[in-house]
Specification:
By secondary structure, the protein is an alpha+beta fold. It has helices at about 5-20, 35-45, 90-105, 130-140, 155-160, 195, 235-255, 290-310, 330-340, 355-360, 385-410; strands spanning about 20, 25, 50-55, 60-65, 70-75, 110-120, 180-190, 200-210, 210-220, 225, 255-265, 270-275, 275-285, 310-320, 325, 345-350, 365-370.
Length: about 400
């Protein structure tokens, strides 16, 4: 008889929702009092287990169950939320991991050391910098890139983390936490519609999309809307509008996703042809070559449309990350754990980024599993997953943890 109690995870998710949410949803924005309250609640639960609890230089909280080997199995998630967030995003990972940790601890000393981590500021909701704690630990963060960041109240990121005894000059010392990591597991709600559309409870995550994010400016000539004939215009918006439609076709051709999230026109009045138009483009794919092709085709299209509208065009990269592929052995184990739990499985990439991507970038064998999201909606108070599916996700994570421990011992 297993000591695992998935219903306890569901009950604790509801307990956390009541403690740190309101009528608009979850309010555990990182480096705020509500976030700290949620973490204190988690700590009280961890203190009931035979674990060592510490907070590293980047604000990540670690609970360590010593094993017969000092090689480590990590199970991770994040307690922070977006403002008005859902009741599952991030915290399901941590609380399911807590239940798995309880089960392992109840059975005596495990063959390997098992650690639960609550990453700090995965969402980046306050300062716009996601994956704060995990990127500090992985070493990909450049603290100098973060010094200028301020929130809507004008508080700097440095001052906000300083209130929690953290310092940008030392955050990357968190990297020592990954030195003995032999595998990393993360459960997450899908946050998209794929599993629901296939009527499947759980899925194996193959990796996270690579991202190309650019700002594009078309420059034409502002002119009077009444006196300028159509064939004499240098319409910057005309070029941008054509590109906005073309990037959708590019995405469909290559099996990726492309999104124009913002379009700003100047002078931005109803009586003037648009002289300057700024747009943002976000392109994502699991395959690096196809992502590169999507970017190349979008740039070619922008030149073509600029010429058609007698405009200039320039591109500036906002941000980029390569596709992250999860470990093939762990993919097989996750597949088996889900089959044993649900009897059916599907493999899919993740469009959103997760802390798991940073852990994988640090060279730690990594895997994620998804549980179905109702309506495919997340970052919203209506975010939801069926309770029987939540219970299955805890069971599958537990089975995966057992398989991963055996794999670590055998390596």
């Amino acid at each position: 008889m297993s000591n695992l109690n998935p219903q306890r995870t569901i009950d604790e998710l509801k307990e956390l929702r009541a403690l740190t949410g309101d009528e608009n949803g979850a309010q555990r924005v990182a480096f705020t009092d509500t976030w700290a309250k949620g973490r204190a609640w988690l700590r009280a639960k961890l203190e009931q287990l035979p674990v060592e609890i510490e907070t590293d230089e980047a604000g990540n909280v670690w609970a360590t169950l010593k094993g017969q080997s000092d090689r480590e199995l990590l199970i991770g998630g994040h307690m922070d939320s977006v403002p008005n967030g859902g009741w599952l995003d991030g915290c399901l990972n941590v609380l399911a991991g807590l239940e798995v940790l309880r089960r392992i601890a109840a059975e005596g000393q495990p063959p390997v050391t098992v650690r639960l981590v609550d990453w700090a500021d995965e969402e980046g909701a306050r300062f716009g910098r996601s994956l704060f704690g995990s990127s500090a630990a992985s070493g990909t963060m450049n603290p100098d890139d973060l010094r200028h960041l301020v929130d809507k109240q004008g508080i700097s990121l440095g001052d906000a983390i300083g209130a929690y005894k953290l310092n940008l000059d030392t955050v990357k010392q968190a990297g020592k936490q990954l030195k003995k990591a032999a595998a990393y597991l993360e459960l997450h709600i899908e946050q998209g519609p794929v599993l629901e559309s296939m009527n499947l409870p759980l899925g194996v995550v193959l990796g996270t999309y690579g991202v190309e994010r650019h700002a594009i400016r078309f420059t034409g000539q502002s002119a009077h809307a009444g006196s300028t004939p159509m064939d004499k215009r240098k319409d910057a918006f005309g070029a941008a509008a054509k590109l906005g439609l073309e990037i959708r076709e590019i995405a469909k051709r290559h099996g990726g996703v492309c999104t124009v999230g913002s379009v700003v026109t100047r002078p931005g009045i109803v009586t003037a042809v648009v002289g300057e138009c700024d747009m943002t483009l976000d392109q994502r794919h699991i395959n690096a070559d196809l992502l590169g092709r999507m970017l190349h085709e979008a740039k070619q299209a922008s030149q073509r449309f600029a010429e058609e509208e007698k405009c200039g065009v320039e591109w500036n990269r906002i941000w980029q990350i390569e596709p992250i592929h999860f470990h093939p052995d762990l993919i097989q184990m996750c597949d088996a754990a889900i089959m044993e739990t649900a009897g059916v499985v599907h493999r899919l990439p993740s469009g959103p980024l997760h802390d798991a991507a940073e852990v994988a970038r640090a060279g730690v064998p990594t895997i994620m599993l998804f549980v179905q999201s109702l309506r495919g909606i997340s970052h919203n108070k209506i975010e939801d997953t069926r309770e029987d599916h939540l219970a299955m996700s805890v069971e599958a994570l537990d089975k995966l943890a057992s398989k991963a421990m055996g794999w670590i011992v055998g390596r």
